[in-house]
Amino acid sequence: MPTDDWCLIITDLRKVYGRDVVANDRISLRVEPGEIYGLLGPNGAGKSTLVKQLIGLLKPTSGSIRLGPHDLVAAPAIARQLCSYLPQAQMPIDSLRCGEAIELGGLIRGGDTTRVRRRTLELLETLDLQEWRNVLGSRLSGGVRRLVGFAMVTAWPGAVVILDEPTNDVDPLRRRLLWDEVRGLADRGAAVLLVTHNVLEAEKAIDRLAIIDQGRLLAEGTPSSFKTDSHDQLRLQLMLRPGVADPDMPAFVTRTARTGHNLVAVIAEADAGPAIAWAKTLVQAGTAEEYALGATTLEDAYIRLTGQAALDGQARVS
Question: I need a surface site. Which of 101, 219, 283, 285 has the fewest CB within 10 A?
Fold first, then answer.
């Protein structure tokens, strides 16, 4: 696996469909070997278009993509050799046994047979997939198929590993195992690009991130840097009863977002006491079932920048 100065450098990338549909608008990013870089944004933000250009399936309207010494726009075939890609869709493995699929993934990418076989056994163990080793893909649950797809992509990883919503359908226990393996990929020198709209989960895994929306880069930095403007703020999370409308907001609430029955209100740290008292009255009145007060998160910054809650593009934000 190439390392050292093999940075993925995207410069002024622009993709326009037809005459005026701008999918990516002059995006510039740099992903270093050994880091997990999050590409976050709501559905339709332009994430998939960006990835398709990285792996040579789309040609940019303008701009450049370089990986180490290679120009990936001029040589899309090299892009597909050097970038491992886990798409959001499930891998077509119905007729393959779990272990066979993982081994085949490594061999297709040019891996040495002995080392790929050893890596397959390692992945079966680390992802807790041993019991399905000889089970056909058609008989696997969605979550197990997702893990097998991840293992197929990482049995012989490229210099860049692109993971599009890798934990979809995966149970909580194996999610933790998967994230440990993602960190291991970076520790072994890969540049990992994590594409997701699940901000809550990504915050725990990524080293740096970019938030894009409507094709534009809104902000870039570490998870902590996104919260520097919110150090004197808190988030009050209310679980409203089903069918209940948003309660009237007190003057001290600066911003709210609702996803389903979950309502998040951002308040100043100095208003913690009044906020708890207000939340208690909502519980006593039967409007809310419970509440929690804590530090602001990356999701709050995401809401501020995109106007959408992390897990629901239809969430109401004010």
Answer: 285
Per-residue confidence at 312, pLDDT binned at 50, 70, 90? very low
- In the block, which residue shows the tokens 């959001």? 88
Residue 315 — very low, low, confident or very high, per pLDDT cuts 50/70/90? very low
Q: Which residue type sits at 229?
A: D
Return the ∠ at Cα 40 (arms to 16 and 58), rounded to 5°: 30
Q: Take residue 89 and report the two structure tokens written for it.
A: 């869709």
Stated as kind and residue range, the H or E segment containing 133 is: none
Residue 2 — pLDDT band, cuts 50, 70, 90? very low
What's the full length of the chain, in residues?
Answer: 318
* Residue 243 region by backbone torsions, left for phi larger than 0, else alpha for psi between -120 and 50, else beta: left
Pick the CATH number of 226-317 from 3.30.310, 3.30.70, 3.40.1000, 1.20.1080: 3.30.70
Q: What is the pLDDT of residue 3?
A: 46
- Percent of the chain whose pLDDT exceeds 90: 73
- 235 alpha carbon, distance to own chain's centre: 22
Q: How confident is the model at residue 313 (pLDDT cuts 50, 70, 90)?
A: very low
Domain ranges of the chain: 8-222, 226-317
State how far the Cα of 107 lies from the Cα of 91, in Å rounded to an integer: 16
pLDDT at residue number 260: 83
Q: Copy the structure tokens of residue 97.
A: 């046994």
Sign of CA dihedral 194, 198, 201, 204: positive
Q: What is the DSSP letter of 157?
A: -
Domain 8-222 class, CATH top level: alpha beta
Q: Is the dihedral of CA 166, 168, 171, 176 positive or negative?
A: positive
Of 189, 187, 162, 161, nearest to 2 by C-alpha is 189
